[in-house]
Design brief:
There is one protein chain. By secondary structure, the protein is mainly α. It has a domain of 66 residues. The chain is 68% helix and 3% strand. The chain has 4 helices and 2 strands, in the order ββαααα. It has a two-stranded antiparallel sheet. It is elongated and about 70 Å long. The N and C termini lie far apart (72 Å).
């Protein structure tokens, strides 16, 4: 029913990503795209395994644990410096600069640890 040019009733708008060109809606094209992406995933996995295996032959339990310990030590250094710096209401600029240096070291090592963790989770490295 209409009244004054407006539609009366409910209207549910679907997801925008459901809108496809005629070419994209073609099921054979969709299969080719899916097949291409699956092949790329396999090729990327193979490339990562090859490169990581060649470039990081010493990534093992001991090296991974050593990195985890270093991250913990850097975190402790950063927090310890923060506790000491917090004793003064107006910390010395040198102490603040030292905090920034310690935070950067901690955050960078944490990022490296997380990257190594992803490498292990994805099976790019063969652990000994």
């Amino acid at each position: 029913m209409t009244s004054g040019g407006k539609i009366i009733g409910e209207y549910t708008k679907g997801k925008v990503d459901k809108l496809l060109t005629a070419d994209a809606a073609d099921s054979s094209r969709s299969q080719r795209i899916r097949h291409f992406l699956e092949n790329m995933d396999a090729a990327i996995l193979e490339a990562n395994c090859e490169v990581i295996g060649r470039e990081l032959p010493n990534l093992n339990r001991d090296s991974f644990l050593r990195m985890a310990v270093r991250v913990a030590e850097l975190r402790a250094d950063y927090i310890r410096a923060g506790l000491k710096t917090s004793e003064a209401r107006h910390p010395d600029p040198g102490a603040v600069a030292d905090l920034a240096r310690l935070r950067t070291a901690y955050e960078e090592m944490l990022a490296v640890y997380e990257a190594a963790e992803r490498v292990i989770e994805r099976g790019y490295a063969k652990l000994g």
